[in-house]
Write a structure and sequence with these properties.
Helix content is 42%, strand content 12%. It is of the alpha/beta class. The protein has a 5-stranded mixed beta sheet.
Length: 440
């Protein structure tokens, strides 16, 4: 999802009481309502309500009561479900659903797919495997993907043109290199007579620990093998660490990106929208904000790949950043919830998502639709979005991810601040993560 993705990764929510006013803020209400729990900013909430309203027009006998998250979504879901008031339909994130599934909170959707063979066949034929498989855990299918956020580069086309610098590539299968990316960022970074930066070549609008791992992944090494229920992450792999070090050096050595201390007092989003940054790492959740920025001529581009990836002839990779829709295992409205999931994750709901311009849908038919293209008419490199899902790798899927995230966040911090080399993660982080994963 959009602006909340970075916040959700940190375990916090976005919306306050004012934003919750139009919708129910809890699980009390009529017992015959189908409850739908999700997190969203106001623009996203509007798009989701369009899907809800379209569903209710088609199913007037099913009344949907939205429940908008007002804090940490995972904690809220756990609280609701522990109290016996689990919402019928729940938004699921790739990094937290496995813990809920492992505790029996989520229904294995295979039980419903097996009896609805026609829908199952249509869904599988239209789905992008890597997205669909993101929500498969221990043999069960615990959610259907509903949107792809991804992670890629936004760039200021005007800055590139005025500097006479060639724009970055717009195809995942024809990426640029770490060296070319660095040279471009250096050429577009400007300083005044006193050496102070007036325009950055690159800024990160995502979550730096995850962005660093994304650069590591683009040096030819995945987070983990296998991805689902791994017992080891690749923070001891030299090529993976080289990608992390390259990302850290952008700020600490080459000074083409703000240092960690700088970002405490400035908005990286603001730097890009104001023309004080040439390139910005983010996902589709940033698109709506950038389209509203005055006089911002931007486009999207793929991420660069490192020497290890180039040696293997690998394409550039994005993050998945997907959310899905799940059904509570103890839902008393299972049949109604199933109809809602089929609508929202099926062709009709996905078409609405594509036309909204707020999300990238997950079905090929919706991605390739004229409505999706029309909603992104400012984008020249549309293949970055349309081909992005198929060129994505996701986070490891583990019930213990919250603990892994806490360890990773703490250990990578000094590396990103230039206090320790990435190689230190071999000794400090890897054994701790292995110990956590061994207990999963």
């Amino acid at each position: 999802m959009t602006t909340s993705r970075r916040t959700v990764l940190r375990g916090a929510g976005l919306l306050g009481a004012a934003a919750l006013a139009p919708w129910t803020a809890g699980c009390s209400g009529a017992d015959d309502d189908l409850t739908f729990f999700f997190a969203a900013n106001p623009e996203e909430a509007d798009a989701r309500m369009r899907i809800v309203n379209a569903f209710q027009r088609e199913h007037p006998d099913i009344r949907v009561r939205p429940i908008l998250a007002g804090g940490d979504p995972t904690q809220q879901m756990s609280t609701f479900c522990a109290g016996g008031k689990c919402p019928d339909v729940l938004m699921a994130w790739e990094f937290n659903y496995a813990g809920l599934a492992d505790r029996g909170v989520l229904l294995d959707l295979n039980t419903l797919l097996n009896r609805d063979r026609q829908f199952a066949a249509a869904l599988h034929s239209d789905s992008i495997p890597v997205l669909y498989e993101t929500f498969g855990f221990n043999g069960g299918q615990y959610a259907f993907p509903e949107q792809w956020s991804g992670a890629f580069l936004f760039y200021n086309a005007k800055i590139f043109a005025e500097a006479g610098v060639a724009p970055p590539p717009g195809r995942w299968d024809k990426p640029w290199t770490f060296g070319e990316f660095l040279d471009t960022a250096a050429a577009l970074t400007q300083r005044d007579d006193r050496g102070r930066v007036t325009r950055w070549g690159f800024v990160d609008t995502w979550s730096p620990p995850y962005s660093a791992a994304l650069f590591a992944m683009n040096n030819g090494v995945p987070w983990a093998v296998p991805r689902v229920s791994p017992t080891h992450l690749n923070f001891d792999d030299d090529d993976f660490l080289a990608g992390i070090q390259f990302y850290a050096d952008l700020a600490n050595v080459h000074r083409v990106a703000p240092a960690a201390a700088d970002t405490q007092s400035i908005s990286t989003m603001g730097l890009f929208t104001s023309g004080n940054a040439a390139m910005a790492l983010g996902g589709h959740w940033r698109y709506q904000t950038f389209t509203q920025a005055e006089d911002l001529d931007f486009d999207v581009a793929v991420l660069p790949t490192g020497p290890a990836a180039a040696a293997k002839g690998m394409a550039a990779r994005s993050a998945i950043g997907s959310t899905g829709l799940a059904i509570a295992a103890d839902s008393r409205h299972r049949e109604q919830a199933w109809e809602f999931l089929k609508f929202a994750a099926g062709p009709v709901g996905q078409s609405l998502i594509g036309a909204s311009g707020l999300f990238v849908p997950v079905l090929r038919s919706a991605i390739d639709s004229p409505e999706f293209t029309a909603a992104h008419r400012r984008i020249r490199n549309l293949a970055v979005l349309t081909d992005g899902p198929a060129h994505s790798e996701g986070l490891p899927i583990s019930p213990e991810w919250q603990q892994v995230h806490a360890l990773m966040d703490r250990a990578i911090g000094p590396v990103l601040r230039g206090k320790r080399p990435a190689e230190s993660l071999k000794r400090g982080l890897t054994p701790q993560i292995d110990e956590v994963l061994a207990t999963a």
